[in-house]
């Protein structure tokens, strides 16, 4: 099985440069990895003491961020190497101020793993949530480097728990300890005789709870919402499937007072233009907004075609819709919840523990079609008492689940 895996990795390495000629994201994936080892050589010296944090993409970066902050605070002289798998995470966070070296993780070959570990020489390694690269894990185990999974989550349908999953089960034995999000994950690991685990929750709760301490003012949304006096639906990380449902509602509704803010997941010009042209109500693109020359008094729909503004935008929400649920899976709902906002999502949420918890508590509502969306949005907009009740549920949920980072750091460095 290892032979077949390595063969597939080498085939992928050979084919991806060809695919990159026709696919912009794959081009970033391929070109970025060409610089990984040189970044390490420039940023990390043989005498440096190093921690390595690996994340898949942007969501996992948010989970790893509290760990990095805690490590920097406790070990200010150590350096942090941060690796990404996906361009959608790396390209947004490549200039972060916490990591001393930020780079793409080289492809998972035996030689790459050896070279990477020689250059990075980490004392401890933290993989976030669900990244399992067999060759890297094998080398970490052989070199006796402490390796931790943080905010881990396991489900019965994963390959580890199938009869043919022995190859990946072996990879899990490289982890020194598993810090998991829920009891089910711990129980599943125990079925594999992996009892080196603890249920500590999700580090994202620590991350999002810090949001309330920052200045979340956005001048354009102050103007759009009339200082938060207008009911506002904030649509975060939306995909076309989400947007069609919401745009149909916007175009049909007679409610001229409701403000809608879109912050799409993909801000490519062609997709933004498609969204913009589909809206028949007064609208504004953020990229065309200037405080001195743009009047938002009559604008009903505002499209944020820029990154890194969604979190603050949620502070203006009366109701939030978090996208992805009609596709591969919902995006981060915790940023909306931390502002005490009732949340609407699509039906694909079952891989996300926080969504299941908030659905059970009632402050996150699943919609399956446009009719569901209209009915639930109308109920929330017209029932202030219900909104207040659900808002309190969301806020309490965030506060009750803090401190995963403290538990992890205390265990690792006891």
Strand % is 15-25%
pLDDT < 50 stretches: none
**Which CATH architecture of the largest domain is right?**
3-Layer(aba) Sandwich
Distance between the termini: 38 Å
Q: Please identify the top-level CATH class of the largest domain.
A: Alpha Beta
Spatial arrangement of strands, main beta sheet = 3-2-1-4-5-6-7
Mean pLDDT over the residues: 94
Fraction of residues in H or I helices: 40-55%
CATH topological fold name of the largest domain: Rossmann fold
Number of strands: 14
Structural class, from secondary structure content?
alpha/beta
Number of helices: 19
Tally of separate domains: 2
Rg of Cα set: 22 Å
Query: By CATH's scheme, which homologous superfamily of the largest domain applies?
Result: Glycogen Phosphorylase B
Main sheet characteristics: 7 strands, parallel
**Shape verdict:** globular
TL;DR of this structure?
The protein has 414 residues and is α/β, with parallel strands linked by helices. It has helices at 2-19, 24-33, 36-43, 58-74, 87-93, 110-120, 134-142, 166-172, 183-190, 204-209, 219-224, 240-252, 269-278, 310-313, 334-338, 353-361, 370-382, 384-400, 404-412, and strands at 50-55, 79-84, 101-104, 124-128, 146-152, 177-180, 197-199, 232-238, 259-264, 283-285, 301-303, 319-322, 343-345, 364-366.
């Amino acid at each position: 099985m290892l032979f077949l895996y390595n063969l597939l990795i080498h085939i992928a390495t050979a084919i991806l440069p060809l695919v990159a000629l026709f696919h912009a994201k794959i081009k970033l994936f391929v070109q970025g990895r060409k610089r990984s080892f040189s970044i390490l050589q420039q940023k990390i010296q043989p005498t440096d003491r190093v921690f390595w944090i690996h994340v898949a993409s942007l969501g996992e970066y948010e989970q790893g961020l509290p760990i990095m902050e805690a490590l920097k605070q406790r070990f200010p002289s150590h350096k942090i190497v941060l690796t990404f798998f996906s361009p959608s995470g790396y390209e947004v966070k490549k200039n972060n101020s916490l990591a001393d070296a930020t780079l793409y993780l080289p492809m998972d070959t035996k030689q790459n793993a050896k070279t990477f570990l020689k250059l990075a020489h980490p004392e401890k390694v933290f993989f976030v949530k669900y990244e399992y690269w067999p060759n890297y894990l094998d080398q970490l185990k052989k070199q006796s480097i402490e390796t931790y999974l943080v905010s881990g989550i396991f489900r019965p349908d994963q390959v580890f728990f199938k009869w043919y999953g022995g190859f990946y089960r072996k990879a899990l034995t490289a982890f020194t300890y598993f810090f998991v999000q829920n009891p089910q994950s711990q129980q599943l690991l125990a079925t594999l005789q992996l009892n080196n685990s603890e249920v500590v929750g999700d580090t994202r709760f620590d991350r999002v709870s810090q949001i309330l301490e920052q200045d979340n003012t956005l001048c354009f949304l102050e103007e759009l919402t009339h200082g938060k006096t207008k009911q506002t639906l904030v649509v975060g990380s939306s995909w076309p499937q989400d947007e069609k449902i919401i745009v149909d509602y916007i175009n049909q509704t007679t409610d001229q007072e409701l403000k809608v803010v879109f912050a799409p997941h993909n801000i490519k010009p062609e997709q933004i233009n498609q969204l913009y042209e589909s809206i028949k109500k007064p609208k504004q693109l953020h990229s065309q907004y200037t405080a001195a020359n743009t009047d938002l008094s009559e604008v009903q729909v505002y499209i944020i075609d820029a990154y890194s503004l969604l979190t603050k935008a949620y502070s203006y929400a009366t109701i939030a819709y978090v996208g992805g649920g009609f596709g591969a899976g919902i995006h981060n709902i915790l940023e909306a919840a931390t502002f005490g906002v009732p949340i609407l999502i699509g039906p694909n949420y079952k891989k996300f523990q926080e969504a299941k918890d908030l659905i059970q508590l009632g402050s996150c509502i699943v919609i399956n079609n446009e009719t569901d969306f209209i009915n639930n949005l109308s109920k929330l907009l017209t029932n202030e008492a219900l909104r207040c009740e659900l808002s309190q549920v969301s806020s309490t949920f965030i506060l009750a689940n803090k401190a995963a980072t403290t538990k992890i750091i205390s265990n690792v460095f006891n």
